[in-house]
Amino acid sequence: MKYPSPYLTVVVIGLLFSLASSASHTHDHEHFLQCLQLQNSTSISEVVYTPSNSSYSSILHFSIQNHRFLSKTTPKPLVIVTPLHASHVQATIICSQLHGLQIRTRSGGHDFEGVSYISQLPFVIIDLINYRNIEVDAETRTAWVQAGATIVFRVERTLEQNATILIMKWQNVASKLHEDLAIRLELTTKAKFEALFLGGKDKLIPLMQERFPELGLVKEDCTEMSWIESTVYMVGSSSKSLQVLLQRTPSLPQSYKGKSDFLKHPIPESGLEGIWQLFKENGDKFAFMELFPYGGIMDQIPQSKLPFPHRSGNLCLVGYLDSWDQHGRDEVAQKQIKWITRIYSYMEPFASNSPRAAYLNYRDLDIGVNNIGYTSYEQASLWGLKYFKNNFNRLANVKTKVDPLNFFRYKQSIPSLMKFCSCENRVAEKFRGEEMQDNSYLDEFMEGTHSFYKNKRNKAKSNTQVPEDN
Ligand SMILES: *[C@@H]1O[C@H](CO)[C@@H](O)[C@H](O)[C@H]1NC(C)=O
Ligand SMILES: *[C@@H]1O[C@H](CO)[C@@H](O)[C@H](O)[C@H]1NC(C)=O
Ligand SMILES: *[C@@H]1O[C@H](CO)[C@@H](O)[C@H](O)[C@H]1NC(C)=O
Hints:
Blueprint (H helix, E strand, L loop, with lengths): L5 H19 L4 H10 L9 E2 L6 H7 L16 E3 L4 H13 L3 E5 L16 E5 L21 E9 L5 H11 L7 E7 L3 E7 L3 H11 L10 E5 H8 L20 E9 L5 H14 L5 E6 L22 E9 L5 H17 L30 H12 L2 H12 L20 H10 L7 H23 L8
Parallel strand pairs: 2-4, 3-4
Antiparallel strand pairs: 1-2, 5-7, 5-8, 6-7, 6-10, 9-11, 10-11
Helix pairs in contact: 1-12, 1-13, 2-4, 8-9
One 2-acetamido-2-deoxy-beta-D-glucopyranose binds next to β1.
């Protein structure tokens, strides 16, 4: 094979490195384990789990919150590392790279699509389960808990109780209310208004009478509690004890699917009729649609300030969620996923457009994914612009600087802008096909990737200057 430049050779080698590895390294994760031992990291073996360790399954399953990904066919990691020190993370990254393994980094396992613990290529999970200190810095005021009295209310209204009229009114006022008041709306076959107010009843009731009298809120609907208590109340926990916040296993085992939208204009009354109809047809008690009001501080942060771009101009964030507890029953899962796809497509005319924006934390692989091999910026833009708008291009530029070979990647990771030669697709095809006989290029891959990173390391060592960020 002839490449245009030595540098490109390295890039292509890097790209194909783990494709090659999937075929050649599946059976030798022993070498990966040896590699971990050789790194300078204190007692790493105490935090390394392979399928032969008796607690491998319990560690793996512990943070799989979405039981859609608990099935036998869900790809499993070769190794799970639960680091206690940064050196454990470093060792895992270095060895994964050397042995062509993908890395998945998992925290609470809340990811809707399981991308923090699933890969189609051989992989290792770095599970941050032991990283759970919370440090509150009083001096710089970086944490903000228990800010005095908080009021919470939750009122439900059926269709007969004018739910449609109330939602119309909510859409007009929710993003423009006092900045200490947020009213979340949850739709099923009825409407649930759930609010958090940083202040007392005496201030809230007049405020509601002025801006949203139709809801008919009275003092008796309100409960006064501390902010930290409200977090327990808001998730619908029946417990009054704050101890539930320390409980790490979810109370209900469940499988779920979520999607998201942003609204820039109110859904018209005729549009709401169709939503009621869809909920009636579904008949599943766990399906709901939630609307979080925007406005407030969100309006004051420019779109380009942080990667998260959905700021002013939005009335609310919409989440569509459906969960079911028939673990392992495909027909139930298919039916519920189909329903959520239906309501999402029904909502298209009312949602934001060009692009139809999406919320990253409600990860949704239906809106587009990366290829196993190279993915162009254009292709990744299909979903990238939905999550990040114009910040996507800037994120891709940062990615190209810090990880040009795209070692850290998953189904919806930010792509590197590094250009590849056309031979890339040809070789990728080869990997997808059966013919893996000719492995001569593998050595070349290894060598190329190693020298690329070695050069980078040496350069970093000899360069004491901090690189300029342009
Ligand atoms: C090895 O790790 C220890 C503690 O993590 C650190 O102090 C030491 O500098 C490291 N040595 C090398 C050669 O990296
Ligand atoms: C897993 O098993 C290996 C081999 O027996 C052992 O060295 C390692 O310490 C075990 N891991 C944990 C976390 O106990
Ligand atoms: C519903 O709205 C109508 C008119 O807007 C009003 O007369 C009626 O009392 C309301 N019903 C309830 C249950 O609030």
